[in-house]
Amino acid sequence: xxxxxxxxxxxxxxxxxxxxxxxxxxxxxxxxxxxxxxxxxxxxxxxxxxxxxxxxxxxxxxxxxxxxxxxxxxxxxxxxxxxxxxxxxxxxxxxxxxxxxxxxxxxxxxxxxxxxxxxxxxxxxxxxxxxxxxxxxxxxxxxxxxxxxxxxxxxxxxxxxxxxxxxxxxxxxxxxxxxxxxxxxxxxxxxxxxxxxxxxxxxxxxxxxxxxxxxxxxx
Length: 219
Ligand SMILES: [Zn+2]
Known about the structure:
Blueprint: H1 2-14, H2 19-44, E1 53-56, E2 59-66, E3 69-76, E4 85-87, E5 101-106, E6 112-118, H3 122-139, H4 141-216
Antiparallel strand pairs: 1-2, 2-3, 4-5, 5-6
Helix pairs in contact: 1-2
The structure holds zinc ion.
């Protein structure tokens, strides 16, 4: 490190460049050298590497690529995006393919079934999905799938925003309604109070008049 600083100082003196400019240049070269392999790797990646999710059997499948192989393939809830649980217990107790079912269950959505595949256990389902992914890659159909998936996401996002705005408006209306209600009840209370006060006055006046009458009559 000391040698590096010494070298940078010597360059600064030799070429009459400010020290900060030499340091900045050295830092830029260092970052470039570090980042180049990553950028090159990213640029060299096959285009289909962007294809990382699709809907199949009514559930969302996500995966990654590792050395041109599909890895970490699993199913997710189309509603809450949470990881799904695969229930394929029944596959062990039967040899009949029609009775072999794999259910996709979302615990975050009340343990509801999100989809199912008839004909085999989870390994069978995973192999079907993998086969479909490669088929779409080979036929370039994945480009259309990605486009549709993006459109669906945008629509869902817009719907979520709309729901948020409506909820906000409704809550604002409720606040205004409550405020109006409390103002009205205050006014009613005031009116009641104004009605009650004269009555009290009347009662006291009546009492006073009775007393004065009693005094007059000498009682
Ligand atoms: Zn869910």
